Amino acid sequence: MGSVYLPSLLLVDDDSIISESLKYVLSDEYEVSLAFDRENCIEVLGSMPSPPQVVLVDLGLPPDTHKPDEGFAVIEYICKYSPCSKVIVLSGQDERKYVDAAKKLGAVDFVAKPCDIAELKVRLKQQVKVSGELPNELQPLSGIIGESPAIELLRMQIKQLADSPFPVLIHGESGSGKELAAQNLHSCSLRKKHPFLTLNCAAFNDELLASQLFGHARGAFTGATENKSGFFEEAGQGTLLLDEIADLPIDLQAKLLRVLENGEYYRVGETHPRMAQARVLAASNKDLIEAIDKGLFREDLYHRLSVLTIRVPSVNEREQDKLILLKYFQQQLNQQVSGFELDEGAKQLWVAYDFPGNVRELRNIIIRLSAKYPGQTIKRSVLEQELMQVMSRHGDVNEMDVFRKNLKAEGFQLNEELKRIEKEYIKLALQESLNNMSKAASLLGVNRSTLYGRLDRSEEVL
Predict the structure, then answer these.
(1) Cystine design at 35: which of 19, 29, 40, 119 (Cβ 3.0–4.6 Å)?
(2) Could you say which DSSP state residue 280 is in?
């Protein structure tokens, strides 16, 4: 039998009798951790695998338990460290001004001591919404398709890192699904009810990118006719993905570093700071270490972004997933067009093909085949022509690579391959000559009788 999931709760109170008593009565419904002052609270938070879903904080903490200052400092720290953690004040210092101050700092509720345990449990349940929340390990992942070890590792990393407050650097080839991995990091986290925004750092010039990222004040530059919020502000307590992070200009890299270090940023044209609460994810298909060596990327920003890293595998590393992905995308297209089938030889070629454009290319090929061959069975020769067209558009055609793939394909037979090639050349020559046998024979460099003889031997009507 699997272990029962319990929401995580951190109790910050210097009174050991109260702490142990509450831990005893709540431990059947919560995974309870204890801290006794601000320093210890920070230490406990750092040791937890993910931020607590709810925190109970006493205002009167050491060194001066008669004042609420340390309790306020703990609330402020937790709300910055983990904006999605729900902070409830549990304190005997229940004057109205203290209640208002705690809520202004980010606390969601205030329970006066001594508390009624039944009431406390109701308020805790309201905040963590136990009945409606799934723990990370049970959260479904959207669009992460396959059974290969590489994709299973990706799933595991996403679930492990989803609730961490730290940035994540996502590596992967173009088209491999880096943004999809980022979306799942967000949707599996406690931030999932807040916005998920993506900003492509390569899509704007320097001035416009700064405005997109941080916002701008009216009159900050030509065309700035009104105040505008940026992506950090719009993301709120959600997640901001900075795609193509290697293309972020150097001057903006310094500003991003400031945000990551203390949450502080300025709108373009403003002089008073604002505070960011969004979690930052960054994605790149470029070698950032190489960019550092060339002076194009700040080393300190790289180390700040790469506290946690995820690598999205290429399709070529997921050979056993290629047919699974084929079926998945075909099912998505079923309502729009009749599906096609691959014969055994075409399946072998599909698995052997590298898909240099990764999942994006694989999906596009399926869309094109579905449009051209609805309800048909596609033979190896037809699929090979389609893939050669794709490779030629990428400038990646290498005849020896094609021969090498065919030679390594399961069930390869030279005589059958030569027959297939002959049929394709004859078919192409007839198409080019509009079925004029004399012209077709001339294109092929044979006489008409030889062409007729080879047509007779053909196993299919050309």
Answers:
(1) 40
(2) E
